């Protein structure tokens, strides 16, 4: 099952809206949601600043600010990337 990472911060109203939309999508599509708080990740703070929420799948940015449902579903339908190890 794929994981949708949402880069967020405490008190972000747009993030709350996006997370609600993701909860709705989970009713018909299989994925998990992982939250990454900017306060806990200085590298992501440098990368995104207050330009949130950001949605990532397999480390690839899918959308910012609001949910791009079509882009997310397209990314979720792609095979999982394999890493050498």
List the helices and strands and how they pair.
Elements: E1 2-8, H1 13-25, E2 31-37, H2 42-48, E3 54-57, E4 60-64, H3 69-77
The class by helix and strand makeup works out as: alpha+beta
CATH homologous superfamily grouping: Glutaredoxin
Question: Number of domains in the coordinates?
Answer: 1
Q: Give the biggest beta sheet.
A: 4 strands, mixed
List SSEs in N-to-C order: EHEHEEH
Spatial order of strands in the largest sheet: 2-1-3-4
Count up the helices: 3
Helical percent range?
25-40%
Strand content: 25-35%
Radius of gyration: 13 Å
3D architecture notes:
- About 20% of the residues are buried.
- The protein has a single domain, classed as Glutaredoxin (3-Layer(aba) Sandwich).
- It is an alpha+beta fold and about 80 residues long.
- A 4-stranded mixed beta sheet has the order 2-1-3-4, with helices on one face.
- It is about 35% helix and about 25% strand.
- It has 3 helices and 4 strands.
Structure keywords:
single chain, 85 residues, alpha+beta, Glutaredoxin, four-stranded mixed beta sheet, 3 helices, 34% helix
Structure in a nutshell:
By secondary structure, the chain is of the alpha+beta class. It has helices spanning 13-25, 42-48, 69-77; strands spanning 2-8, 31-37, 54-57, 60-64.
């Amino acid at each position: 099952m794929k994981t949708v990472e949402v880069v967020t911060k405490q008190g972000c109203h747009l993030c709350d809206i996006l997370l609600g939309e993701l909860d709705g999508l989970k009713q018909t599509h299989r994925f998990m949601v992982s939250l990454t708080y900017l306060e806990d990740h200085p590298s992501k703070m440098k990368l995104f600043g207050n330009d949130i929420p950001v949605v990532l799948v397999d480390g690839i940015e899918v959308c910012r600010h609001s949910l791009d449902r079509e882009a997310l579903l397209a990314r979720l339908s792609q095979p999982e990337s394999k890493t050498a190890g």
